[in-house]
Amino acid sequence: MNNETKNIIEIKNLVKTFDDRSVLDGINLEIPEGEITVIMGGSGCGKSTLLRHLVGLLTPTEGSIMIDGENIVGISENGMNCVRRKFGMLFQGAALFNSLTVGENVALPLREHTDLKDTIIQIIVKVKLELVGLTGFEHFMPHQISGGMKKRVALARAIALDPKIVFYDEPGAGLDPITAAMIDQLILDLSRKLRITSVVVTHEMKSAFRIADKIVILRKGKILETGTGAQIQNSKNSYVQQFISGEPDGAIPLMQTSEAYLKGLLET
Amino acid sequence: MTEFNTSPGKIRGFFGKIGQNTGLFFAGEGRLFDLFKSVVKVFGMALIRKKTVKSEHVFQQIVLMGVESLGIICLVAVAVGMILALQAAYQLKQFGAVLYTGGLVSVSMARELGPLIAAILISGRVGARMAAELGTMKTQEEVDALTTMGLNSVRYLVAPRCLSLIIVLPCLTVISQVMGMVGGFLVGTLGIGIDPYMYVEKNFDALVIKDVYTGIIKSVVFAILIALVSCHEGLSVDGGAEGVGKATTQAVVTSIILIIICDCIATAIFYYALPG
Ligand SMILES: Nc1ncnc2c1ncn2[C@@H]1O[C@H](COP(=O)(O)OP(=O)(O)O)[C@@H](O)[C@H]1O
Ligand SMILES: [Mg+2]
Questions:
Q1: Which range among A177-186, B28-37, B201-210 shows the weakest confidence by mean pLDDT?
Q2: Any idea what the CATH number is for the domain that residue A37 is in?
Q3: CB-count burial class (<10 Å; 0-12, 13-18, 19+) for B261
Q4: Number of structural domains, chain A?
Q5: pLDDT at residue A44 in the model
Q6: What is the pTM of this model?
């Protein structure tokens, strides 16, 4: 990372416990502006939980989170809503509103947060949908389009207010490899063309290496390793290697006794 | 002997469980009160800023709720009115006062049964739907999506539902009161053979304006209860489809319990505080 890029998000000593079980255990992380940071790790390691802290859906047990120079821990609801104007989020299941059409979904943040006239909102919606390759889909209902399309609509909605940052929770989950690659390409395009900072949570190696400027490997609520794609690929850590190669057996044994599993849970 | 030894423990366990459930129930009501406060705040804001609660959302909800429940409320209210007339006539016959059937039916429909029938049916139809709808939105992260867009879920989801129910339920209550009297009229005239003119006269003689408006005041309270309980249950769903199912049942059960409790309290208040 060169010195010119500023960190738009800084997480310091973030700890989260859900009734005695710590899910995030002292996370320290900086996310550089205008780049794509990928947070990676096995299922249940706390990726979504980390992301939910960044968007203010969860409050940390300990630690601080700075977004664009503002500490969002202990901030008022109104203050948080101001910060929320700076980012968009793409949820794992797209989270489109099923009673609204595709166009209305994208228009919603514009309607609620700006005083733009309806005709102008329609134009912005068209542009955003075009950006994600869905020209002319305004009048479809969410249940009429495929999973990949839903994700793209959700992405159009996330960037409706021209945010500085977009968070993605498992953008490729539940999609076929080609559609997933298409979404990856969109993330890349948005980041490069619009200089949007992207924070992507995923467990898919391929996609991570394709898009990441910086990769963060999470394990059991702790950061195991940070680096560029190449650095991670050449990592000496056996867990990271097992994760990259996708071998069933390695640092994590294939066969786990239930006692060992429970012990593992207690350790985290 | 061991059985005797365990029984005190069992009893303690039993009462402990009751205590625990009561505690949970009231803890739940505490959170319900928080939701109530946020809704009041949203309505307060709506008076200042016009954009806060969207009229089209409210209108849409009103049409949905009103139209879908009208038929069933008419049916049940007519049936209850008929039952009431028959039972009243059966007792009044002993005093040779069958003529007063109309008055008995109209007063009990207006004060008690009209509001209660409408509220209980609405909690089963509309309340359950609200809880299921919001619960599904919660599990599909739609509520979180609203929040991350900086949109207040109480304002956007709860307030329109509350407002529409406050408008719809009193209307349905009036319909239910009237239909109950119609049911009574049918049985009284066709079944028991009271002169229609006399029946109608007795029906309205007994009725004072207070009977009608206490019924409507009650229905407003019931509307707030149903909307808050159902939205609260829906929004506190976690875990998938099973959670939604549980929340839906819980919404109806809690609504009905609270409706009956509030009805007791309201009736007592009207009896002692508003005599005449
Ligand atoms: N609201 C919650 N209450 C209790 N435990 C939770 C909650 N949310 C997440 N967890 C736990 O935190 C851990 C990490 O979850 P998550 O962040 O969703 O993992 P993932 O990395 O797969 O996205 C899981 O073990 C999960 O059970
Ligand atoms: Mg996840």
A1: B28-37
A2: 3.40.50.300
A3: exposed
A4: 1
A5: 87
A6: 0.85
Would residue A167 count as lying in a domain? yes
Establish whether this prediction's ipTM goes over 0.85.
Answer: yes
Q: Is residue A140 part of a domain?
A: no
Q: Does the C-beta of A165 come closer than 6 Å to ligand 1?
A: no
- Per-residue pLDDT of A102-144, as tens digits, reads 999 999 999 888 899 999 999 999 999 998 989 989 999 999 9
Residues from chain B that touch A85, judged by Cβ atoms under 8 A, are: 150
Residue of chain B whose Cα is closest to the Cα of A92? B141
Q: In whole angstroms, how far apart are CA A108 and each of A111, A156, B46, B56? A: 5, 11, 19, 14
Residue B274 has pLDDT above 80, yes or no: no
Burial annotation B107-131 (CB, 10 A radius, 16+ → b, else e):
bbbbbbbbbbbbbbbbbbbbbbbbb
What is the domain range of residue A37? 7-86+163-267
Q: Is residue A19 part of a domain?
A: yes
Pair B244, B134: CB distance under 8 Å: no
A235: pLDDT strictly greater than 90: no
Quote the tokens at residue A147: 């999973």
Residue B45 with chain A: CB contacts under 8 Å: none
- In chain B, domain spans: 1-52, 53-272
